[in-house]
Amino acid sequence: MAQEKKPNEANFEWYDMSLPMEDRIDALISAMTVDEKISQLMNANAPIPRLGVKEYDWWNECLHGVARNGRATVFPQAIALGATFDTKLAFQVATAISDEARAKFNIAQKMGNYNRYAGLTFWTPNVNIFRDPRWGRGQETYGEDPFLTSRIGVAFVEGLQGNNPNYLKAAACAKHFAVHSGPEAFRHQFNAVVSPKDLWETYLPAFEALVKEAKVEAVMGAYNRTDGEASCASPFLLQDILTKQWGFKGHIVSDCGAIQDIWKDHHLAKTPEEASSMAIKAGLDLNCGRTFESLKKALDEKLVTEKDIDKALHDLLRTKFRLGFFDDNRDNPYAHISPDVIGSSEHRKLALEEAEKSIVLVKNKNHVLPLKKDLKSVFVTGPQAANEEVLLGNYYGVNNNTVNILDGIVSQLSLGTTINYRYGQLPYRENVNPMDYVTGGAAAADVCIAVMGINGLVEGEEGAAIASEHKGDRKDIRLPQSQIDFLKKIKAKGKGNPLVVVITGGSPIAIPEIYDIADAVLYVWYPGEEGGTAVGNILFGDAVPSGRLPFTVPKSVNDLPPYEDYSMKGRTYKYMEKEPLFPFGFGLSYSKFEYSKMNIGAGPDGKITAKVTISNTGKFDAEEVAQMYTSSPLAGKGDPFYSLVAFQRVSVPAGQSKVVQFELPEKAFTEVNEAGKRVLRKGDYKLWIGGSLPGNRSTALGASKCQEMSVDVAQLLR
What we know:
Elements: H1 21-31, H2 34-39, E1 44-45, E2 56-57, H3 78-84, H4 87-111, H5 146-161, E3 173-177, E4 191-192, H6 196-203, H7 205-212, E5 218-221, E6 225-226, E7 229-230, H8 235-245, E8 251-254, H9 258-264, H10 272-282, H11 295-300, H12 306-322, H13 345-358, E9 360-364, E10 377-381, H14 405-410, E11 418-422, H15 439-444, E12 447-453, H16 481-493, E13 499-504, H17 512-517, E14 520-525, H18 531-539, H19 572-575, E15 593-602, E16 608-616, E17 622-631, E18 643-652, E19 657-664, E20 671-672, E21 678-679, E22 684-690, H20 696-700, E23 707-712, H21 713-717
Parallel strand pairs: 3-5, 4-6, 5-8, 10-11, 10-12, 12-13, 13-14
Antiparallel strand pairs: 1-2, 6-7, 9-14, 15-16, 16-19, 17-18, 17-22, 20-21, 22-23
InterPro entries: BXL (IPR044993), Fn3-like (IPR026891), GH (IPR017853), Glyco_hydro_3_C (IPR002772), Glyco_hydro_3_C_sf (IPR036881), Glyco_hydro_3_N (IPR001764), Glyco_hydro_3_N_sf (IPR036962), Ig-like_fold (IPR013783)
Pfam families: Fn3-like (PF14310), Glyco_hydro_3 (PF00933), Glyco_hydro_3_C (PF01915)
Organism: Prolixibacter denitrificans
């Protein structure tokens, strides 16, 4: 008796690699029943054995490493990547992540593991704008600036998807489209009201860059309404902008449960059938959730057509084919990535490099840092010092060899140094036991290193931050009062010995009182598996701090507009009138940099060339982040006070100088008017190049003075 052929060995057209991909997709769709088609439009795809179609779950995450799927390299949280201002590093990190993702996928397939998080369609990156410090998910973003977010996001997507002309290494997804950044408690029913100017100036540029430049494979719709339309069923967002204006060719997925929200919470539809039909007809292809089960009934009620379903399915199958799911693995280079890459020493070094480059030094009184390694006594205290949780942030993977901050500090010190460690203070409330075994000893040591801050228990997504009273958001952006009082007590008992404060967290943490009493302050984010090593290297001089704040740190929550207001007035460095505690782009070094010889001229291809000389006048070889800002003739009168238009990380040895050059297209100087159109203003633009946001606050905190010029851009471009 002849052996029966398995379905994937049969002569199905969709497995015939000699045929054009579009023909193969059409053939597979034609072979499916309506029920089978609908089963493929939800994140958990049912298998279709008779057609050789395997089970697959589209839901996967890799925000800063392969997440929720076993061992993988845990890179620093996304906000830390933003703080590096390093697009090359972003590409390298994403490449490492997708290498591990492919290797893990190859193993899982052989095991028959088709579970959620075991696939190759990653709902990353989050390119929403961190418009308000209270948003708990801001840690997932690259910060408050659309340009920085665009550049880091494009590099990340390119690294994740690979450069093979025939196959995707992994499929990236730009989320959450479009106007989405809190509040978490109301995200399922909230209506984000936004002007055309703010929409096109702030909320859309990163998405546009990922679609047009990086060719991102997927876009995820947001939970909220945008100007009254459900973001996951908005013809304006999904058709007019994404498909028609930007030419998006991938697939569109809902946030999880967002189709249910359309009828249940937004009340824009009366039934699941109506909600599903609205989404499909608007261009959404994939439902994360089960609401699309109602499409069968929607067909019967003539709310949708089978052609509508076929179109959505075609978009999804195109992604599967590009990932190689229906091809012989011989021709797919990504199908042969070795499992040796997972958690490799090279990836671990990359995680360390990212963590070191992300750390932001905001105070260093009398050059107390770097510390000597042969101090006689060091006291380490604080609730986050030995806390593994602060390495992770959210949407994280796991690793069996993490280094916490206490470990990193201890590893640097001499074997003869007396080291004391005490937890010292509960993180979010006063100590239950009033006895104090800590502050006296901490104050008496040669140096006290206090590791304070917050973690993912109090800031994060709606249901993940289990210690949050506000579903992951922070209504108070200060360091918790219990921690403030604890540090004040140490300082009051001290006799001039240095107090070094290390702060963990993924969002702007206002520390005006701590800034006044501490000798040195570092923001270290959620720094990943090598976070402790990175902090130790920075504290003791094996690495020089070079990170920059990817957001503004206000002095108080009272300096912010209402959280629910999506207008950019009074928000971020672009429109904030009140003096910040720390400006966007700010960060100190152990060395000293000076900017000189700024020059602006017409360049090739209708671009403007900007040059500046950076001199390292300090004693440390170090990296500097050169930043270029523009200010239009209408700055402060409708246009932003400043706009970041270019940045470059450059290594400058001590005592040497380097010339940095930027090539800027005309678009870099355009402004968005009230109608949402980009225009070039008449008159002189001011241009700055320096190591931080221009302004008195930056220089008062120790930043290098920016070079400044005024230029009639329109005249220069003629």
